[in-house]
Amino acid sequence: MLTKWMSIVCVFGTALLARTTVDGFLLEYQAELANLSSQAVRDVAASWTANSELNGLFNRRILAQIGDATVQMRIRDAYVAELLENERDSLSDVCWQFLDQYYAFYRSMWGVDIRNCMREAHQDLEYDRLDRFRPQASSAQRIMKTATYQVIRTLGMSNIFNREGIRGQLTDELESYRSTWESYETTLREELERHDETVTGTMRRMELCIDRALVYQQVDVEVIEEEIETNCESGAKTSSK
After folding, report:
1. Is residue 40 part of a domain?
2. Do 103 and 224 touch, CB atoms closer than 8 A?
3. For 123, 140, 171, 194, which has the most beta carbons within 10 A of its beta carbon?
4. b/e per residue 172-209 (b: at least 16 CB within 10 A)
5. Tens digit of each residue's pLDDT (9 = 90 or more) over 133-144
6. pTM
7. DSSP code at position 190
8. CA–CA distance, 105 with 99 (Å, rounded to integer)
9. Contact status, residue 198 vs residue 206, Cβ threshold 8 Å
10. What is the dihedral of CA 32, 37, 38, 44, to 10 degrees?
11. For residue 44, is pLDDT > 90?
12. CATH number for the domain including 123?
């Protein structure tokens, strides 16, 4: 009788030991996958913070350059308005009406020119903010978060009696997540580095755009000055030719 009970205890003990061993390797994989997931999510968050700071600096650089150009345009605009007001009595009615219309038209064009510069810069800023880094970071965060639950997912798709098969599958999954994260790490670093290229290109194009707008405005100002000096005779002579 004692021998029988000893046999039963041994059988249950062996089964319990086997279950404990299986639980042990499952928990080991769970711990590794969870740690990898947590580290990846933290690193993505840190990269996201760094990218947001870069976006903010980019925005301020654009504002500074646009702001300076706007001030210059307003100074010239105020000069023309004051010039026309001061010279009103010395101009013929026909010349005054011509210059008044001319000034109104070209004043609107000055606004269009500088707005076009702003619009182009804004498009680059939106690209830098939404398309350069964010899609890759969002994808990395979404995929790496799933590593925490991969053990349960694998068990749900496996033959629970095939212990070695489960172990092999989890090994493959762990290596896959590691490889995926290494790839995302490289990609996110490259995306952050690519920010400088975007900024350099944007600021160069915006500088050219602003310079062109200011040149156009200065030409218009000089035309108005000449028309005032000649009481619009220069325009009449040009038309007669």
Report:
1. yes
2. yes
3. 140
4. ebbeebeebbeebeeebeebbeebeebbeebbeebeeb
5. 999 999 999 999
6. 0.75
7. H
8. 10
9. no
10. 150
11. yes
12. 1.20.1270
